[in-house]
Design a protein that fits this description.
The chain is α/β, with parallel strands linked by helices. The protein is built from 16 helices and 17 strands. The strands form 4 sheets. It has a 6-stranded mixed beta sheet, sandwiched between helices. Strand 6 and strand 7 form a beta hairpin. The longest helix is centred in the C-terminal third of the chain and has 22 residues. The protein is globular and about 80 Å long. It starts with a strand and ends with a helix. Bound molecules: adenosine-5'-triphosphate and magnesium ion.
């Protein structure tokens, strides 16, 4: 049996959704990579009793280790260290050498940033952060707050608790020290390599893959398969022990056999990866003319470093005038067939190619909503075209969901069209 861990993310800002949690998922992935299974992530606000309940719950679930994030700052609402210490039955005392180190850090930071503090308030904050539960290991600060590893007591059934700061860069910086802690190493003695692999499909409904999974039945034993529809792509993520690698490979073969053309990635690559790689490998360039997405595709194409080698640029052509002036769509054409039309999508794609001197041009024009729809052209109708030296591919889906979903999904559809065009004329 592989060791199991639980995560407690603290912070009212995370609980209420003002800040979206980056620590829980990050810690879960780090733990998985070291062969530890994560059973639970619990999010609690800055209320001591709720943190205690979360710890009780995880102890009851018999996890081998708990990792907390947040609540280590100098202010009164930062309670995690004290609450965890008390829960483990370990009274806290000031670690004077640690206090001196924190003071030095705070003074250095203040000098560099030109902050001035009431010395008394600063000393109180530092003194609070230097309180260490009896028998806990200290993890050196990567910001100003030290982390802790607080063990349970003999026979109380409590796992050790790793207490980490909330700011993601501080937490991530401290993680290697946490993993190296003798208390943590001992708690996670039983590890088994836990692999996680992803297959991605495009243009297949979730029920189709569900049928494949049902048919394979016992052939999947020991594979933890989850399917998830994301932005129109179907993601099949499987977790399995390394001893089941052959079974996983057979599963992927079966998926490829049944869903052939819809499977676009079996090695974890995203459509963004595939498009970038295909353009880079073949020395081709791309340009965009976007109406309803107004630059979102250009943004996504340029997310990765090095994209200047293949992205020429893009035009945001939201108005009819911009469509005409920036990429030469004939005004007469727009008047005749309407801005949201196959013809205009083609003219945008060809115009982007021509005006920006690229090998491939992408045109997107659609009705993002919520207004502006009609029976013939409903909200969510998007015309897309990718034009290349040897031809074009086009699509005109009606994308469900709200405005932001229509815009985001349009970009994904466009990337798949680029991929299809590049696949189609790949040299044999
Ligand atoms: P500080 O000394 O900065 O107060 P802390 O350990 O007390 O550190 P928190 O007060 O819980 O941490 O969080 C500080 C800030 O870090 C939050 O306002 C938030 O911006 C960010 N943060 C905390 N937890 C998370 C999280 N789970 N995901 C993303 N950001 C977070
Ligand atoms: Mg804080």
């Amino acid at each position: 049996m592989s060791a199991r861990a639980g995560i407690v993310v603290t912070g009212t800002e995370v609980l209420t959704g003002r800040v979206s949690d980056r620590n829980g998922p990050w810690l879960a992935e780090q733990l998985r990579q070291t062969g530890v299974d994560v059973g639970f992530t619990v999010v609690v606000g800055d209320r001591p009793q709720d943190l205690v309940e979360a710890l009780d719950f995880l102890a009851g679930a018999r996890v081998d280790l708990v990792v907390t994030s947040g609540g280590l700052g100098p202010t009164a609402d930062d309670l995690t260290a004290a609450v965890v210490g008390e829960w483990q039955g370990r009274p806290s005392a000031t670690d004077e050498r640690l206090e001196a180190r924190i003071t030095a850090i705070v003074e250095r930071l203040s000098a560099r940033r030109g902050w001035t503090f009431d010395p008394e308030a600063m000393a109180a904050g530092t003194a609070k952060q230097a309180l260490v539960p009896h028998g806990a290991e200290v993890l050196e600060p990567t910001g100003t707050a030290p982390g802790l590893v607080v063990p349970g007591q003999d026979g109380d059934g409590h796992p050790p608790v790793v207490v980490l700061p909330g700011p993601p860069s501080e937490l991530q910086g401290m993680w290697p020290a946490a993993l190296a802690s003798p208390l943590v190493t001992a708690a996670l003695a039983d590890r088994a390599e836990l692999r996680q692999s992803t297959v991605r499909l495009w243009g297949t409904p979730e029920v189709a893959i569900a049928a494949t999974l049902r048919r394979l039945g016992d052939g999947l034993e020991g594979l933890e398969v989850t399917t998830c529809l994301r932005g129109g792509e179907l993601e099949v993520v499987t977790r399995y022990g390394s001893d089941l690698a052959d079974r996983y490979d057979r599963f992927v073969e079966a998926v490829v056999q049944e869903h052939g053309a819809a499977v676009f990635s079996t090695d974890g690559s995203t459509v963004d990866d595939l498009v970038a790689r295909a353009l880079a490998d073949r020395g081709l360039t791309i340009a965009t003319a976007e109406s309803c997405t107004a630059g979102l595709l250009a943004g996504r194409l340029t997310e990765r470093a090095g994209s200047s080698a293949w992205v020429r640029g893009g035009a945001v052509v939201y108005s009819n005038e911009a469509k005409h002036h920036l990429v030469g769509v004939p005004t007469e054409l727009i008047e005749r067939v309407g801005a949201v039309s196959e013809e205009v999508a083609v003219a945008l794609a060809e115009g982007a190619r021509r005006e920006l001197g690229a090998d491939l041009g992408v045109g997107i024009t659609g009705i993002a909503g919520p207004g502006g729809g009609s029976p013939e052209k409903p909200v969510g109708l998007v015309h897309l075209c990718v034009a290349g030296p040897d031809g074009r591919v086009q699509a005109a889906p009606v994308i469900p969901g709200d405005r932001s979903n229509v815009r985001a999904r349009s970009v994904t559809v466009a990337l798949h069209l680029v991929r299809e065009l590049l696949d189609g004329d790949a040299p044999a």
